[in-house]
Amino acid sequence: MLILKVLDKFVRVFFIFSLFQLSVDAQTIATKDTPSLDSLLVQARKLAFNDGKVQARKICKQILTRDSTYWDAAVLMGRTYAWDQKYDSARIVLNKVIEQRAGYYDAVDALIDVELLSDNYLRAIKYADIGLSFHPNDGAFLYKKARAMNSSGDADKASSILNQIITIDPSNTDARALLLSIRRDKMINKFTLNYWTYIYKDDSPWNFASAAIGRKTSLFGTVVLRYNYARRFGFDGHQVEFDAYPTIVKGIYLYFNSGISTKKNFPYSRLTMEPYFKLPAGFEMSIGFRYMNFDDKRIAAVDSNMVMIYTGTIGKYWGNYWFSFRPYLTPGKDGWSTSANLTVRRYLAKEDSYLSLVVGTGISPDVQQFAYDPRYYLKSSKITLEYQQKIAYRYLINLGTGFAQEEIRAGTTRNRFSIDVGLSYLF
Questions:
Q1: Residue 210 contacts by C-beta under 8 Å, 6 or more apart in sequence?
Q2: Sign of the four-CA dihedral 205, 206, 211, 215
Q3: CA-atom Rg of the chain in angstroms
């Protein structure tokens, strides 16, 4: 009996120990098969920054299911919503974080970005102030508050904050760049001088010049008064033009141009109207007309002395590039004449600095040198290279060169080389 009792106790102990060991082994296997929260977050971040925002959000939700206080996952999820322009969803996720963890740096920072991206500048300022109440003199919060202040129209307060940042951290290049941009925006006037020359093999050069004064206004957008001079065929021509770019509604603005001349080397009068429409995904389009009157006895003509050109453009921003295609359609008694320009522009590191390549057929009625009825030119092709560079804060310099082959009458062509230089002063 004693042996049986001892044996029974041994079996029971062995059984309990076996169950315990199986439990430990199961937990060990489960731990090995279940990735850590940190490794899941690393995976989510890689997806979020490589066009995998939807998958990243799924992983973040998985993390938060396992640990609802894993704030970094919530912040990442909120940012991915913002990057997909789902701003309300981003606000819900991020506000839940700061409700549970007041002043949490990354969540407040993300909320400021959400409001900046959605153009809610007053809310961005509010969240920046919340962040600064927990993290006084923080450079990132101060900078984003300055951005919001400037975008909301309070450039003076934005400048004061940026000067505060620079005092704390003189090496802050973002603050210096924004402060410089604000100062430039206050320079609402622009004076420009341009000179062009057209060089022909068997003819005297044609020379052109212009002087323009422009000003940014709240009612009419940028307005420009321009004087154009042309010297060709031994004649001097003079023209005065007026440009305006008023905003019609948000996302739509109008290009308006009118001019009058002494008739020599220019149309006697001209008028342009062309609305521009900003479209999603960085696209822009326009449609309009160019009217020109070549009868110096009338300010406007509707007979054979007038030329009506229909035009438009479709453009697209792609990274640092701008692509634009513009056709010109001119009706006439012998049918329609057509011309077109394709522009590829590469924006450089400095603001207002770029390099442009223009290829086209026909002649463009938009250049200051334009003088003749486009129907006189049967066929032509051209290529132009243009360069603009900002210099010493207030100056812009323009350089350009081009080549064109023009058919001035049936069977007769000539080559044209062009050189142009320009200088603008901002004040």
A1: 192, 193, 194, 226, 227, 228, 229, 368
A2: negative
A3: 33
Q: Which H or E element spans position 16? A: helix 2-33
Query: Which two tokens mark 233?
Result: 């065929």
Average pLDDT value over all residues in the chain: 89
Tens of pLDDT along 298-332?
999 988 889 999 999 999 999 899 999 999 999 98
Residues of the chain scoring pLDDT < 70 = 1-33, 370-378
| Rounded (5°) CA angle 303-309-315 | 170
Q: Count CB neighbours of 124 within 10 A.
A: 25
Count of beta carbons in the 10 Å neighbourhood of residue 2: 6
CA distance 321 to 154: 31
pLDDT in tens, 65-86: 999 999 999 999 999 999 999 9
* 31-63 pLDDT tens trace: 445 789 999 999 999 999 998 999 999 999 999
Burial of 149 (0-12, 13-18, 19+ CB in 10 A): buried
- Between vectors from CA 363 to CA 357 and to CA 369, what angle results, nearest 5°? 90
pTM exceeds cut of 0.70:
no
Quick check: 322 and 316 in contact, CB under 8 A? yes
- Nearest partner of 124 among 105, 106, 146, 103, judged by Cα: 146
